[in-house]
Amino acid sequence: MFLQRLVEYAERPGFDSPPDSYAETPIRYLIELDADGRLLKPSLTDTADASQRELRRGLRYLAPAVRRTSAVKALLLVDNATYVLGRAKDDTSGSDERARACRQAFYELVADCAQSTGDPGVRAVASFLEGQGSAQIVLEDDFDGTANISFSVAGQLPFERREVQRYWADRNETQENVMQCLVCGQIRPAQARLQRAIKGIPGGQPSGTAIISANESAFESYGLEASLIAPICGACAERSHLALNRLLRDEAHHLIVGKSAFVFWTREATEFSFLEMIAQPQPDDVRQLLLSVYGRRAGPVEANRFYAAALGANGGRVQVRTWLDTPLEEAQRNLARWFVRQRIVGRWGEEPRPLGIRSLAAATVRELGDVPAQTVQSLLLAAVGGRPLPSGLAYQVVQRTRAEQTVQPHHAAMLKLALCSQQPDQEEPMTQLDLSNTHPAYLCGRLLAELEQAQFAASPNVRASIVDRYYGTACTAPATVFGTLIQNAQPHLAKLQRDRPGAYAGIQRTLEEILAALGGFPRTLSLNDQSLFALGYYHQRAHNRAQAIAYKEAQS
Ligand SMILES: [Zn+2]
């Protein structure tokens, strides 16, 4: 399941998974001490770099971290100026008192750690805090009292020592709520409130969104509160959150479309980038994929696996809307098939170009921002999961073509993708004009394009073409409109016959062929038929335009 795969990701070599009760934390200032706890220099070492967004609050370390309330509670060896230096945030006496309490708590924690671990670095810090060392520190004018401060002892960071990490983990391990962790299966204390939030999900809170939480009692069940509904131990919670946040930060692993965030990864690292293929497919890469997938022999199953999740935010919680866990090879095969199914000739008859998930989703709505999460999820599941596209999507595209009174390449690609995904054996036809297709809806679409061609050839400057006016009716109820359209075309054809006999002969021949194959006009067209109509119209138009270009080139 999702969280287990995230924990595995965090445990991959090179990931730098944090020790228990540690979290990635920016540490801006370091107090430099020698091995005996004497100040090496009065100024603090500033690790921040204002020119880099990531480093504005200082270098990031895996450091002791637990969630705090307003009560005085020190963090081990790393904290803000109130705790480390006893510096009040403002000058009112009340906060001075609080600052003293904070500093005392910080010192006591370090002293306890020094005693319990015997670590020389921690001992040095304890002796520095015990003496008057802090008084010698000189703060710069731009000192940020809210930033984290820690200690470097003879060039080492004591909180990175294994003994210190173990001390902190033990100290924070409560024996409350001991139950089976649903991720690692061990019997351990479950986290009552998860320490970290997920950032980067559209619609989520700026401070981050909890992945498993139940802040409202309506979500609470079985008498278990908050995150205990899905008990997760501290280590698993920390790792899964760290992994997901890293995936959501990494350009190569996530994609935001509309109100959904998608994350993709593989169990073992691979060169293949699903993200690029889905977001901005390049013709050469798609060709390579097809070659590798269709040229591959069915050998032993590759062990690597592909994972994808669609995430959304709802009321401060992360929703895992879709979760896919499949062998990598199968995901690649599905992706190859998805590109074959969406192949469609260009609007001027050019070679088909692969379309990314955003372009396809855009075919279903007026504005890309309106794309519902469900649409993108269906497309993703079709692309990497090999699932058929729901027919509702084709319906939305057909509605767009009727509203726009035309068929654009991304409309045609989506319609073909939907048709092919519902009829898996029929893949390659329908990429371009198919003269053998005698389906009445397809022929009606072609006929409309050819009548438009006659009108355009006869009067190139016409303001509103027949398509602008009749596309919607022609594609839903052909019988009500085609008789009139053919009649109205007669003056155009007569004019053409007189002025451009060559063009006339071509158009007339095509019209006769279509009408002969058609017999009569269907009264109404079903949804599937309307898709075929759109494709017939699009194909014939691309074919006519390609011919016009070829003719012009032959003339020049
Ligand atoms: Zn666990």
Topology, pairings included?
Layout: H1 2-10, E1 22-27, E2 29-33, E3 45-46, E4 59-64, H2 81-85, H3 93-117, H4 120-130, E5 149-153, H5 162-172, E6 178-180, E7 187-189, H6 234-249, E8 254-257, E9 260-266, H7 274-279, H8 283-294, E10 305-314, E11 317-327, H9 328-342, H10 357-362, H11 373-385, H12 391-404, H13 409-422, H14 440-458, H15 466-476, H16 478-499, H17 501-518, H18 527-555
Parallel strand pairs: 2-5
Antiparallel strand pairs: 1-4, 2-3, 6-7, 8-9, 9-10, 10-11
Helix pairs in contact: 1-6, 3-4, 8-9, 9-11, 12-13, 12-15, 12-18, 13-18, 14-15, 14-16, 14-17, 14-18, 15-16, 16-17
This protein binds zinc ion.
Structure summary:
This protein has 556 residues and is of the alpha+beta class.
Structure characterization notes:
The model is unreliable at 213-228 (pLDDT under 50). This protein starts with a helix and ends with a helix. It contains 18 helices and eleven strands. The longest helix is centred in the last third of the chain and has 29 residues, at 527-555. It has 556 residues and is of the alpha+beta class. 46% of the residues lie in helices and 11% in strands. Helix 1 (2-10) crosses helix 6 (234-249) and helix 14 packs antiparallel against helix 17. It folds into four domains: 21-171, no CATH class; 178-247, no CATH class; 269-303 and 324-418, no CATH class; 433-556, no CATH class. Bound molecules: zinc ion. The site of zinc ion has 8 residues, from helix 6.
